[in-house]
Specification:
Layout (H helix, E strand, L loop, with lengths): L1 E6 L6 H4 L2 H8 L4 E6 L12 E2 L9 E2 L1 H11 L7 E10 L2 H7 L4 E6 L7 H7 L2 E4 L9 H12 L8 H16 L11 E2 L2 E2 L2 H4 L3 H10 L3
Parallel strand pairs: 1-2, 1-6, 5-6, 5-7
Antiparallel strand pairs: 3-4, 8-9
Helix pairs in contact: 3-5
C-alpha cells in the first residue's frame, strides 16, 4: 500500500510514523509513505500558498496553483484516488476504511487555513473525508488517522493474533457494541472484577459478555 501525503507541514508526520506498528510496516515495506511539501510547488517567489478569498470573508484560502501542480505530478506515479481531509467531508467509519484499504495507492491532501480553492476540489479531489464533527487546525492529524486505520488492514502489518483481534473489533465497531473488559489486579481500590470472569468457565463468560454488550 502506497500513501502520498500533501501538506505544508511535512515534519509533523515523521515521529508518528517511526513508532510502533507503523514503523515495523514501513521497515518491512508493507506500506510506503511519501510526504510532499506543497510549498515546494509554489511559483510565488516567497513560496506563498495562501491568499484572501474573493468576495471577502474570514481567513485565507490555499491557492490553486501549488495544489494543482503537486497533485498532478504525484498522480503520474500514484494512480489512487485523491482524498481531501476536511471537516465538510463524509465522516470516516470502519466501513469506509475497509473500502479505501482495497486500493493499492492513495493520495491524501491536507488542508489548512479556511480550506482550498473550490476549483481544485472540483477538478482533482475524488473523496472528501472528515474524522469527526469538530474543527482542527489542519488536515495532518486526520491524514495520520487515515493512514493508521487503513494500514492495519494491509496483510502482514498486524501479527496473526492481532489480525484476529482486529477482525473481531471491526465487527464490534459496526454494531457499536462492546462488553466491559478488565485486567490485573482483580481488586483495584476496592473495585473487584466480576467473579464470572475469574471462574475459568468459558461458557458462562461468553453468556455474561453477551448480556453486557452495550
Amino acid at each position: 500500500m502506497r500513501f502520498d501525503i500533501l501538506t505544508i507541514f511535512p515534519d509533523i508526520f515523521e515521529s508518528y510514523f517511526r513508532e510502533s506498528i507503523m514503523a515495523r510496516a514501513l521497515d518491512e515495506n508493507l506500506i510506503n509513505i511519501k510526504v510532499h511539501n506543497i510549498r515546494e510547488y509554489s511559483k510565488n517567489r516567497h513560496k506563498k500558498v495562501d491568499d484572501l478569498p474573493f468576495g471577502g470573508g474570514p481567513g485565507m484560502l490555499m491557492t490553486p496553483q501549488p495544489l494543482y501542480d503537486s497533485i498532478t505530478k504525484i498522480k503520474k506515479k500514484n494512480k489512487g484516488p485523491v482524498i481531501f481531509m476536511t471537516p465538510q467531508g463524509q465522516t470516516l467509519t470502519q466501513t469506509k476504511v475497509e473500502k479505501f484499504a482495497k486500493f493499492d495507492e492513495l493520495i491524501l491532501l491536507c488542508g489548512r487555513y479556511e480550506g482550498i480553492d473550490q476549483r481544485i476540489r472540483d477538478m482533482l479531489v475524488d473523496h472528501e473525508i472528515s474524522i469527526g464533527n469538530y474543527i482542527l487546525t489542519g488536515g495532518e492529524i486526520p491524514a495520520m488517522v487515515m493512514v493508521d486505520a487503513i494500514s492495519r488492514l494491509v496483510p502482514g502489518v498486524l501479527g496473526e493474533k492481532e489480525s484476529l483481534n482486529e477482525e473481531s473489533f471491526s465487527k464490534n465497531l459496526k454494531r457499536k457494541k462492546e462488553y466491559p473488559q478488565y485486567t490485573r489486579p482483580a481488586d483495584f481500590m476496592g473495585k473487584k472484577v466480576p467473579e464470572v470472569l475469574l471462574s475459568g468457565n468459558h461458557k458462562k463468560i461468553e453468556t455474561w459478555r453477551r448480556k453486557n454488550l452495550k
